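Quick question, first post here. What does this chain look like in 3D?
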Amino acid sequence: MRDAGAWTVVCIKSRIVYTVREPGTTMCDHWQQATAEEGGVGSTLEYGMRFYSTLPDTFANSFKMNVGMLPSDAIIADRAFNTAAVADATLG
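> Answer (accepted):
Ran it through. Tokens below.
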């Protein structure tokens, strides 16, 4: 990806995996058996993500600027916004 800006992401759940599962836990059993309308496999999540363009402070960029060339940019994720967006979409 080489474009900064705001993106809308649409994900479709293909499976639900739990790394820790206590025997008799009803919530895990509920999500495993839930239909797509209830948030199970086949349901969709839609959320926004943001990316910014920046000029990294690297030796190569400093050298390019000193000799009159254009520096190289980098695209970075807005981690705070993206994490909150995924959590909001997942948890409702």
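Residues 5-50+78-91 form one domain.
Strands lie at 5-12, 44-54, 74-77.
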